[in-house]
């Protein structure tokens, strides 16, 4: 697997592989690679894309600086895990390459924005679309792979591609779940004990309960948040 530490190294590689018409598949991540990410890579490889996983913990999508600072990071372990599925390349962009105009969010997508997560995490999706658009500009992928787990994110990125007329195919892949049914997420690495998991689930259940009082099931399904696409069947 090629390890690309900056845009210059990425550009050199892209220049080489583009000459024979190779198509690029991008898997954007914030690292702390788990089986969910690996299944995105496998999907990309299966479709014969030259598969590039990007790893960058994006400051502009966090509402809380503490949350950003304690986001789990383990470069060596991430590289080892990506090697197990024979990912073609891993890209660690530098912050100034993704944010050449300074570290700020741009509001580009308005659709779906007045509901659910946005209400509780103002600016989060602006941070996501800002960094994802930068990654698209730098990597120029032919296809991009996202998990259905982040259903609202998926919707917003579809809109980003449409609005900017980008020649990028968005491929959404089913969530990978642990034995207890929870979809895998890097965030869970922050939980040290079962008690913390229980506490987090209790808070989520409380939030969902409030959302159910405020929104119709259709609205909840369209912008699912913690309610994933496949939860629809169990709700109805
Ligand atoms: O889903 C994530 O890990 C992040 O939101 C993404 C898409 C990599 C942007 O930072």
Summarize the structure in words.
The protein has 236 residues and is of the alpha/beta class. 45% of the residues lie in helices and 12% in strands. It has 11 helices and 6 strands. Strand 2, helix 2 and strand 3 (50-55) form a beta-alpha-beta unit. The N and C termini lie far apart (44 Å). Mean pLDDT is 84; it is low at 225-236. The protein binds pantoate. The site of pantoate has 10 residues, from strand 2 and helix 7.
Features:
11 helices, single chain, binds pantoate, about 45% helix, six-stranded parallel β-sheet, about 240 residues, alpha/beta, about 10% strand, disordered C terminus
Could you tell me how far the N terminus lies from the C terminus, measured between alpha carbons in angstroms?
A: 44 Å
Strand content: 5-15%
In the sheet with the most strands, the strands line up as: 1-4-3-2-5-6
Poorly predicted parts = 225-236
Q: What is the helix content?
A: 40-55%
One letter per element, helices H and strands E, the order comes to EHEHEHHEHHHEHEHHH
